[in-house]
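Hi R.,

Here's the chain you asked about this morning:
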Amino acid sequence: MPLIVCFFTCILLYGLSHFIERSFEKYSVAQNIAELHSVIESIEREISYYDPQEDRENLIQNILLILASHNRLLVCIVDEQNNILYKTRGPNLLLTRNKLNYHSIISKQKTAIWNYNHHSYRVAASDFLTLKGKKYTTFIAIERDYQIEFINRLHDGLILLIFIACLLTLFGTLLTIYITQKPINRLIKIIESVNSKSLNYRIPINTVPVKYISLIKAFNNMLSRMEFVFQRQSNFTADIAHEMRTPITNLTTQTQIALNNARTTSEYKEVLYSHLEEFERLSQTITDMLFLAHADNKLLKPELSDIDIVKMFTAMFDYFEFIAEEKNIKLELKGHCHLMQGDKLMINRAIGNLLSNAIEHTPIDGTITVNVNQINQKTIKIVIANPGKEINKKHLPHLFDRFYRIDESRHRNGQGAGIGLAIVKSIVEAHNGTITVESDKASTRFTMIFPISQIKISKFYQTKK
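And here is the predicted structure, written out as tokens:
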């Protein structure tokens, strides 16, 4: 970066110095040309007033007066026979006749450069007829040495200025980068010190420059998300280990007891049936975890077909009828809707989990109500409400988390693994739907909203396949 800035600074200053040098040179040339032509006009005017033959002395005096206000000028006036009327001291301008194209200079009123005896001159010339018709030629030159020397000094000065400016730019850029980078380096050290044990650390915003506040806010937000995911993963690992340990411990204990004493065939069968239940519990837990793992990686692929939600709930009511009768719980279905597209097995599993959860938390003689409504031509709404104890609002956002329980005790007391609602949420989101929960003293309500058409989802999965 410093080298790039220095490079462009050099280019800019060089271009500016070249412009200044050329501008001054053009100005000097224009001044010389104007001065030469002005003196020529003045001399010709004097010759028109005074006859060179009859009033030579007055003419010479006036020419001297004209030249007195002009320094470094050489003048030579000759007639047609090259007789010199007037000549200043210094180089003989008649020598330039063989060096320069005077016909072009005179006809086009231009000037030319004459280098003589280590000096440089700008030369002009003019032909003039007197009133008596006699022709005179005026040669005039101005010395350029002073201007050339000044331009060379200007050039050297500008080159030195460019060199100094580039050095200052380089050091200034390095210093600016160092000062600017200093807080960044400090932040880098702080960021490098963050590890899995310090994810709760947040960089104070008031300790960083204003221009980095948005960056620090983004980093702190990232730490918050990482801390949440890390904590969730840690809890998940602990919970899944506990879920696996419980059936394995039961299997180990039952096996040890069965081996300590001789058993009858029927007793061994009873132990094996008990083992089978534990194995089924382990298998179901593993299956559920694989399902959620697929959901986390966006690998759930609904097999789309038309679903009659009302018929699905009716069939599900028949399935849970015997379980509900044990607590004298009634199941009511209200409303109607159009057919929707979705995966029948997934939707059926989600509905089954919600109804099972509702029956488990509904008191004896309660009524579970399912409302199916057509919101519009594209959306349906399903509300499953069950009476029971109000759930504290602080628990509601976490009900769909894996292994989350309102009762923080790890003892399940015969309940499921605590991932049923997490599976429900994964299924709903796989169908581009949403699920929310509300709870008050009257009831707890799970609300699912599904799009009727899943054309976009279908096309997406067909493309993936």
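One quick note: The CA atoms of residues 252 and 275 lie 9 Å apart.

Cheers,
M.
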